[in-house]
Amino acid sequence: LRVRHDLGAGSTLGLVYTDRIEGGDYNRVGGGDARILWRKIWFSQIQVVHAWTRDSLGARGGTLWDVVLGDRTGRSYGNHFEINGVTSDFAAASGFVNRTGIVSARLFNRFSWYGAPGAVVEEFTTIVMVSPLWRYDDFWHARSPIEGNLGSTMSATLRGGWNLNAGLSDNLQRFDTTDYAGYAVDRGTDTIPFVVPRTRDHL
Fold it and tell me: Rounded to whole angstroms, how far apart are CA atoms 132 and 130?
C-alpha cells in the first residue's frame, strides 16, 4: 500500500505499508517519507521505515532510515549529501536489503566547465566523491568507519565528439574481528587461531 500527497511543485509526503504472512510468521513494514524542493534546483528528503518480523528466529523489529541533506542539480555545479542506516534486525520480505547493521554516507560535488562551440575542449566535468561506511553502533559513538572510498572521476568532451575519461580512487578496509571468531589456520602439524589482518589503507 502506497499513499502520496503533493505539497506543491516537486514536494511530496508519503506513507507505505506492506504485509506478508505465511502461517504464523509475518513481516510487516510501515513507514513514511517526505521530499522538499527548495530554491528550484535543490531538494532534501527523508525516509523512515520500521519492520516487525516473526519467523523461525523469533520476533524482532528493525528500522531503516535515509536522509538526503541536500541535492543540487545545476549546469556548472551539482552535489549530493546523503546518509542512511539499517539496524541489524531490519528485514523486508517484500523488498531487498542486502546489508544490515550499518550506516553509510555518500557525499559528492560535481564541477562542470563549458567551452565555446567548436573549441578543442567543449566540456570538462569532475566529480569528487567520499563514501564512508560504519558499523551501526560505531556511527552513533563517533568511531572510525570500517570501509570507505575517496575518489574522483574526470571526463572531457573534445571537438569532433571524442571523449576522454579518467578516475582516481583510494579505498579503506577494516576487518571486523567478530566475523572471524572461531576461525583457525591448519598448518598441517598444528592449528593456530586466525589473526585478523590490520586495516588496509590506500587500496
Answer: 6
H/E element, 56:
none
Grid coordinates belonging to 156: 572531457
Both ends of the chain: CA-CA distance in Å? 44
Beta bridge partners of 3: 15
List b or e across 89-121, with b for residues whose CB sees 16 or more CB atoms inside 10 angstroms: bbbbbeeeeeeebbbbbbebbbeeeeeeeeeee
Query: How many contiguous H segments (helices) and E segments (strands) does the chain have?
Result: 1, 13
Which letter does DSSP use for residue 200 in this model? B
- According to DSSP, the residues that pair with 61 across neighbouring strands are 52
In single-letter form, the type of residue at position 136 comes to Y
Model pTM score? 0.82
Cβ neighbours of 27 (radius 10 Å): 19
pLDDT tier at 93 (50, 70, 90 boundaries)? Answer: confident
Bridge partner list, 7: none
Cβ atoms < 10 Å from Cβ of 50: 16
Residues 6+ apart with CB under 8 A from 26: 19, 20, 52, 53, 54
All three cell numbers of 35: 521530499
Cα 145 from Cα 8, distance rounded (Å): 38
> CA 27 to CA 126: how far, in whole Å?
43
Report the pLDDT value the prediction gives residue 131, as an integer from 0 to 100: 96
Helix (H) or strand (E) holding 196: none
> How many other CB atoms sit within 10 Å of the CB of residue 58?
7
